Amino acid sequence: MTHKAKKTAVPRVKLFVLDTNVLMHDPTSLFRFEEHDVFVPMMTLEELDNNKKGTSEVARNARQVSRSLDEIVSNAAHIDTGIGLDVPSHGLACGRLFLQTEAIVVELPAALPNGKGDNQILSVVMYLARREPGRAVILVSKDINMRIKARALGLAAQDYFNDKVLEDSDLLYSGVQELPADFWETHGSGMESWKTETHTAYRLCGPLAPELLQNEFVYQEGERPFEAWVREQHGREILLETLIDYRHSKNNVWGITARNREQNFALNLLMNPEIDFVTLLGQAGTGKTLLTLAAGLTQVLETRRYSEIIITRVTVPVGEDIGFLPGSEEEKMAPWMGALEDNLDVLHGTSEGGQWGRAAAGDLVRSRIKVKSLNFMRGRTFIQKFLILDEAQNLTPKQMKTLITRAGPGTKVVCLGNLAQIDTPYLTEGSSGLTFVVDRFKGWPHSGHVTLQRGERSRLADHAAEVL
Length: 468
What we know:
Number of domains: 3
Helix content: 25-40%
CATH class of the largest domain: Alpha Beta
Strand content: 15-25%
Structural class: alpha/beta
Shape: globular
CATH architecture of the largest domain: 3-Layer(aba) Sandwich
Number of strands: 18
């Protein structure tokens, strides 16, 4: 009987010890552990203090964490017994926050010098694990080596999962679904169909309808290939509408035609005025930037739907940084915009009028394209602009929110990226801002997403992407 009582007395509430990089990655992480307790070591506070200066995202987050901690601690009567997080988190968390209030000295192995901040945090975790043997004490860190060191010392450690949208990027919404062979038999009863000027619409009812999302593309291969997109979805009822075929030269966009099914889907999104937000994913050479620029130029210079194209991208170099650059904002961004120049060269090749005509067209095009740095985006509003966020996989969800909320009336935002090429430290395929927006925007009536599958750059580039 006593044994049973002892067993039930083991607390189920875990104690999470936070590494500095978790707080600097997500300033609200203090409130993300629900009923569990959170412990902040003194070294974490010290490292926050060392990182608070500057205008970078990390410094901004460090200052926000410090303000949150100040607010929590200043309203607390006793720090030693832990501070309830229920009130400061507005009900998000019901655990307690513990700050290190005493000097902790634990003998670490000789190979781990005491002077290093990471090792001091490990000694705190070790001390807490010994002090509370009946409770799970877990180190939370974004630093892989820190987690490996903790496990080598026999301590529990895990990554910060709260910002992860998906565990596996293969589960990410692709925006495209193949219809089964018996689709028309199972959904055809009571079907309504009508024609508008350029489209055919089908109102259907059936078991597959609840799985489809608004603006998702569907296709069927065979003798009579069928391509459409879901324009309305209500329970078991959907409205499918056929697409404009941008593979045909009569529908070319600035001289560019779609080379495969997914590119055709992408151009339907890019050219549709009802769609305010487009995300295109795909590996190198699938045509993301070229299609987007062609659609942008057509709608700026021919149909005058937008006043200009604005392009921005995260300046994360693949190799070493090239240091400070002289010149204006446009000139400083120029080295990052090689991809833009390459695509403009392709688009100029499609314009008529010989060499002089192409040069004149090139000047006109460049006058309507503005290259902006992310650093100066806060507080701006873009009205009737075609905004392209290139290399969007390097953005955090918070930066992505900052950029998308810049859109004013009549602006279209297009996010391009390849989740296999993330260069930002601490960002993974599961926690990238691009994954975040694809997942959150799916099914919204004014947004669309396509994952481009086939590379169209060259046979060499396609083969390299596969085998290397």
